[in-house]
Specification:
heterodimer; A: 347 residues; mainly alpha; two-stranded antiparallel ribbon; 13 helices; 2 strands; elongated; B: 394 residues; two-stranded antiparallel sheet; 17 helices
Chain lengths: 347, 394
């Protein structure tokens, strides 16, 4: 088991390095840097001015050197101009001699966001907390209702309940967040329909989440993932219900609710567990869409801001976080599956 | 003129869609009559869910084709703006701020006007065409790539499998939206990366077909040469035109912003197909008929393409339907974030994004494209469900 986990962690680190390098490479292509220079300076910069701006800020060094600096294994750039010394690792007002030679993520320095004018580490932390709160409520709403839907549909396969619930599950998987979100806002929040039970934006939920401004975003994300988990649970439940030991229990005269709750449920929940863990990457997608739609200034919203302004260091931090989330959940789902299912052994 | 009532609006929309109804009825009548001779497709008409799904899918397919390719259904040009029609509700008579309207123009905006005074109904209908012309082909390309790489990975295993699986997992670990934001921007198009990606991805269909013909007919050189020759000739011609925009005859070309959307969607879908094909191949390769082919001394590509692939077609067809639906969702996502497609484009994602900004006041610009997208994807999912049920039955 230990070697298995170690190997997986090794692959994970390798994947993370490859992915961040791809992001780094794409964001550091010259046209992107030109855009960055123009947004930082002004939009009417000449090509020569762009070049000199980029040169002065260390953007024109070789790709691997820049990547090494970002990681923190290559010394940061230092430039002397007009008598003053500036450098990647030199804080404003700090004497150059006291500044560290390396400053990258290994040293805990995530860089500086060019859009928000703040430290990337601080922004990422704040935004993650906001999105974590959103995700928590999504899970609280999604998992129990999906499992319930799936178990109810799967316990009598082919019945009318099954048909109705399955159709509902298919419909939710066919409704991407930007469609369901728009429908919910139209029905529950617009003055045109007039119900106005909820708020159409979640901007206020950043400071003070209430049921009124927070429920629609949570519901929108939860609904898209719910259908998939419910269908998995249904399939697994339906399979378990045809097993020999369920028939034995029936013949012994155990009541139907008891069969479902005591005999079938535990075994039926192994497969959905993996699916729920693997839903995290999808939820991440949903979070980006929903935060944009409801203007909830969390992690997904930050991703959009960083990407559309080519804020390189913030975008890298965002992708590191999301890649780590994806890979860790994959790892947990693999390990959890082994623990839950005695028929599978790793070695 | 007075605005139309809702009944009138529905009747007029139904009348406007007349070619679609005719085509749908013809399709269903023919298919149901000959359903016993049509294999899996015919069996679809035994399952009510499958029929509903198929109906929805064909409805949007016909709508897209008639509206986009033949200019039949739409009532106004999708880009024509009329200042006096801004945000007007469904059924408002068509007027123009300046000058008199063309007497031949359709007298109403059936589903109202959007924030620039364009006809919502026409834009929704043409939006179907935007999906129909990308989604099925992008899914097909993703399948070609996934199959060409997934079969050997599953069949041979070993180092090849390790490397390919690592790459597939690498792409899958990327949040899709981040990938889109990195790939589908005007700056990246400037660097030419999408063209190189297209150059790599679009080779796979040619490789796939050449391998397919070669493994089957290598004992009959005449037939083999004919098939491989035609494939190479047509394939290279299309390849040069689509990927490099360098068609020697100047007929085939592909707009660069559409190419990047296409490439991004294929790139996101291919790893999933790869994983499915790999898994299925690993399962099937232990069967007796594969062992029999190995004993006969058949080549590995023959075994993979003509023994294994036909036997995994069931799950692959089902996944193909689901994948078109997923691709539709991805295209909508791209439009929603304003990536790739031009801002005036009538595709559903962009129209939803434009409409949502005024959603608290006006519902009619955002709801029709949202419902259209929902019903098409739902149709594809129901179709996949029906196909799965019917293919499992025997």
């Amino acid at each position: 088991m230990v070697t298995f986990i170690l190997r997986r962690v090794g692959v994970m680190v390798l994947t993370a390095i490859c992915l961040t390098f791809i992001v780094f490479f794409l964001t550091n292509l010259y046209p992107n840097l030109e855009k960055l220079a123009k947004t930082q300076g002004n939009f009417r910069m000449t090509d020569a001015e762009v070049e000199s701006y980029l040169g002065r800020n260390g953007y024109l060094d070789p790709m691997l050197v820049k990547y090494g600096r970002w990681i923190g294994v290559w010394p940061g750039w230092v430039i002397e101009e007009e008598g003053a010394t500036r450098g990647r690792c030199i804080e404003p007002g700090q004497p150059p001699e006291e500044a560290p030679r390396f400053c990258g993520i290994l040293q805990g320095d995530w860089g500086f966001s060019t859009v928000f004018r703040k430290d990337v580490g601080v922004i990422t932390g704040e935004k993650l907390a906001l999105t974590g709160w959103l995700m928590l409520w999504v899970m609280v709403l999604m998992v129990p209702s999906a499992l319930m839907l799936g178990v109810l549909a799967g316990m009598r396969e082919g019945s009318r309940t099954d048909r109705t619930l399955s159709t509902f599950a298919i419909t939710t998987t066919a409704t991407p967040e930007y469609v369901s979100g728009v429908l919910f806002i139209a029905v529950f929040a617009s003055s045109a329909v007039g119900l106005q039970w909820f708020k159409g934006t979640a901007t206020g939920a950043v400071d003070k989440p209430t049921f009124e401004n927070f429920f629609l975003p949570v519901l929108t994300i939860a609904l898209y993932g719910m259908g998939y988990i419910a269908r998995m649970t249904r399939a697994s439940m339906a399979e378990v219900m045809t097993a020999q030991y369920i028939r034995t229990a029936r013949l012994k005269g155990v009541s139907f609710p008891n069969i479902v709750l005591k005999h079938a449920l535990r075994n039926a929940l192994i497969a959905p567990f993996t699916v729920i863990m693997l839903q995290f990457p999808w939820l991440l997608n949903g979070v980006v869409i929903v935060e944009t739609l409801f203007n909830y200034k969390g992690f997904g919203w930050t991703l959009v801001q960083a990407a559309s302004n080519n804020d390189i260091e913030l975008l890298l931090a965002v992708s590191v976080v999301s890649v780590v989330v994806v890979l860790v959940t994959q790892l947990i789902s693999d390990i959890g599956y082994v623990y839950l299912n005695p028929r599978i052994s790793v070695s | 003129m007075d605005p139309l009532s809702w009944t009138d609006i529905f009747l007029r929309i139904a009348a406007q869609l007349a070619p679609v109804w005719i085509a749908l009825i013809a399709t269903f009548a023919l298919s149901i009559t000959f359903k016993r001779r049509l294999g899996l497709y015919g069996k679809l008409f035994d399952s009510p869910i499958g029929m509903v799904g198929f109906g929805l899918v064909m409805f949007w397919t016909y709508t897209g084709i008639f509206a986009g390719a033949f200019d039949l259904i739409l009532t106004h040009d999708v880009l024509d703006q009329s200042a006096s029609m801004k945000n007007k509700g469904p059924g408002t008579p068509f007027t123009q701020m300046m000058g008199t309207p063309d007497p031949n123009a359709y007298p109403y905006y059936l589903l109202g006007g959007d924030n620039l005074g364009r006809d919502v109904f026409s834009r929704m209908v043409v939006g179907a065409w935007e999906v129909i012309k990308i989604a099925p082909f992008a899914s097909l390309f993703a399948f070609m790539v996934g199959i060409t790489l997934g079969l050997p990975a599953g069949y041979h295993g070993g180092r090849l499998d390790t490397v390919l699986s690592f790459l597939a997992n690498l792409i899958l670990a990327f949040p899709v939206i981040l990938l889109f934001y990195l790939l589908v921007t005007p700056e990246i198009i400037q660097t030419g990366i999408p063209v190189y990606m297209a150059a790599v991805l679009f080779v796979f269909p040619i490789i796939f077909l050449v391998l397919l013909w070669n493994s089957r007919f290598h004992t009959q050189p005449a037939t083999r040469n004919l098939y491989v020759g035609i494939t190479l000739l047509v394939g290279t011609w299309l390849y040069l035109g689509i990927a490099w925009n360098a068609d020697p005859l100047g007929i085939v070309s592909f707009p660069p912003n559409l190419l990047v959307v296409f490439v991004a969607v294929v790139f996101v879908n291919a790893p999933t197909v790869f994983r499915i094909v790999r898994g299925l191949t690993m399962d099937i390769k232990t069967r007796d008929y594969v062992a029999a082919a190995q004993t006969r001394g058949e080549g590995t590509w023959y075994i993979m393409l003509w023994e294994i692939l036909p036997n995994v077609r069931g799950p692959l067809i089902v996944d193909f339907c689901l994948r078109i639906g997923y691709t539709t969702i991805l295209l909508g996502t791209l439009g929603f974030f304003g990536l790739g497609l031009s801002p005036e484009s009538p595709d559903w994602g962009s129209t939803i994004n434009e409409g949502r900004k005024l959603l608290s006041m006006y519902l009619h610009p955002a709801l029709p494209p949202a419902i259209a997208l929902l019903s098409l994807v739902l149709g594809l999912n129901l179709l996949a469900d029906g196909l799965r049920e019917e293919s499992l039955r025997d």
